[in-house]
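Can anyone check this?
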Amino acid sequence: MKTLKKLVPLKMKISIRDFVNYYTGYSKNKGKYNLKGKKIFVVGTPEHDNLGDHAIVLAEIKLLEKYFSEYEILEVLTVDFFQNLRCLKKFANKEDIFVLQGGGNFGIEYFREEKIRREIITKFPNNKMILFPQTIFFSDTEQGKSEFKKSQEIYKKHKHLTLVAREQISYDIMKEGFGNNKVLLTPDIVMFLEMSYPYKKRNGALLCIRNDKESALTEIDKQIIQKCSKIYEQVIYTDTCVHHNVSVEDREEELNKLWNQFRESKIVITDRLHGMIFAAITSTPCIALGNYNYKVEGSYNWIKHLEYIKYTNSVEKIPGLIEELKKIDPSEYNNSFSLDYYEKIVESMKASRDSM
């Protein structure tokens, strides 16, 4: 049996598992979906270890609760998607809205999420559907080009689909590549959150440096950053990935643990997009560094008016930026700059299907 399992291709294993989940999940989950009122399904939410993605869901739900109080909001987790798909097909009605999870997975780097989006877009052609603020990145390879075309073909057939980019480059790519769909440009949805409170006594430096395929830093760069941070009385290392799965029930507790680390620090040095955004929303001085694509720099443009957030592509500039930040008394974060943009999302969701 073990030998036989090894001979089965991975794609076939996934297809078999999804097929089984599709048919066994209905009886298990139908009570959750068999509701009389209007519903918003938030599809593709995480239970993995990346707290940036969890903050995105939290912000999405808070925005939806503010503007769509008459709707029941239901999460559809990525890991449970095929268990829930039959229930969605059975109980979703034409007035229900599908929110596709925002983030940085519109492409092939995190392909499972793109496959789920394609499935939802194909299976529910008559429902209003909106992709919350995303970065798009299909690599310039044969596979990247091929999958980009597949997504184009699937997306353009949906007449009620709105795509939202979270920085200018993604907006330009979506606008050119998905001309049949409505395309908006807004900040990352986490900027909707205001998390300056509770105030904490600040002490030392917080390093939030990634160690995965999206890092653009060399080991020498990381050593320079560590030396610069020694200016402070203590240095704490953290990450927006916590190296264990985070359940829906534990989401806010885990986020608050991390946000307290930011609130308790005099400065954050990070190459994580949500490291920079968490610093912004907690009113924490921050030096943000670029990664392998354009999402950090592109998102910085939304908050460059915040004096306590600095961006650079050069680690050599960190000592000078530290001295600049020492002279700044951070103001309390205010999301008012972003609200007009988020209201465009709300308007698109509330528009009649005929006007989309």
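Reply from J.R.: I decoded it. The longest strand covers residues 128-137.
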